[in-house]
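User: Here's a chain of 299 residues. Predict its fold as tokens.
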Amino acid sequence: MSFSSFKNSKLIFENFRKFINEQDETSAIEKVANKLADPGTPLSQYVAILKKYAKDPSFRALASAGQTDGDPEDERVKVTRGAVAAKSLTATQAEIGFGNSLDDQLTNAFGSTEAALGLKGDPIVMGSKEGPVPLLVWNNKYVLDGHHRWSQIMMTNPEGSVVVDSISGPAIDNEEEALKAMQLAIASAAGNVETKPFKGENLMQASPQQVAQHALANVTEEVLQLLVKAGKIEKPDKKLAARYFANNVPVIKKSQGRFSREKSMPQAGKSGVAQDAVNKVLGTGKINFQSPKPTDIKK
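Assistant: Prediction complete.
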């Protein structure tokens, strides 16, 4: 074989190998797109796929092809700030931390004001290290992010009105679809998807008696005074406070969610992107959460 023939054969082989690799890559992204497009794909499996592929450039191109999929407006999500009654909201997360929801309230861990306990504000907005943060909800009904803050308010002031950022859009029909869209937006914006494991006891499985005993043993004099000031109990008495917190347990349990925190729930900050940035990119219509397919990508 001459050198030129060998060179030509090598070139043909390399082109063929490149073709095969491209076919394999196309096949992989098609399989991913089919899974994401299937409404029967459970949220936990959907999130597992995002975790696996979020860093892949082909996946990110698919995830952000919402404006080139034929209708640039169909996946545009609106985020509206408003206020709703805390008890009118329903969790999407199945587990609510017993200690996170109750211990902070019994000891006023975040400050000596009624606002820190969700007892003051019309509407109420609780904060984080970054300042006041509205609850993120879908359709003014389902909590997508902020379960900790919501549960604190539910334990001390379920009748109170809370500030929410409510997402809505014609392509989102239920809370599971809203969570999928949110997670896909996080994957697209951050190139990463992280979730948090649930630790400790689950308030949603606790009895009123358990809560009463815990409150009786841990409520501080400061909190008793704040509960009196807010009109929740008649006098600063631990038994009255224990009964008050116990009576709120059935109220919050009626609103239990169905999705695992560890396998499903969005954590924008932990994934590497601010929640505001995720909301904004959803507002552009770029996130390709409705029936994504490789042909949506326009190079």
